[in-house]
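<instruction>
Derive structure tokens from the sequence
<data>
Labelled lines for chain and fold
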Amino acid sequence: MKLKLKQPDAEVVAAAHEEAVSANRRRKRQRGKQSLYQSSRHSAELWDPDYCDELIRFFDRTSWELVPTSKGDERPLIQDKPPSLARFALHIGVTVPIIKLWLREVPAFAEAYETAQALEEAYFTETGAAGISATFAAAKLGLNKTVVEEARDEPISEVTIKVVSGER
């Protein structure tokens, strides 16, 4: 059975085209408006020592809260989006490569990031313990990884296999 598609009316096509053009105009940045975030060429100029504290504050989020249900009991609900380095970069208006450059070049920022990573781990531990997206939390925390056995330095021994036919 061959399916025949009905072509839309010319008015519908024209209206859809006009809407797409209008949406594209709204999406374009106005002249003189500053970019959402800066490139890494001026990363030293963009650095602010307050970013160390800001990073820790950004990662210190309330993971979940109990909300009442229609049945009269309570259930846990995610309170805020999970913290991430990419979201922090967007929050302060720089790119992720700039953040990574600062992590290498600014020891205080690298130290603050260690605290931020611990806060991120706490966020996922808390949501997982509350039963909210426990599988994702376990994956994020690496709880489903198995330990790989270390290779032994034993000599390789030869094994001989003889195939015997079952017919006589």
About this structure: The chain has a mean pLDDT of 77. Residues 83 and 143 are 19 Å apart (CA to CA). The beta strands are 64-68, 74-78.
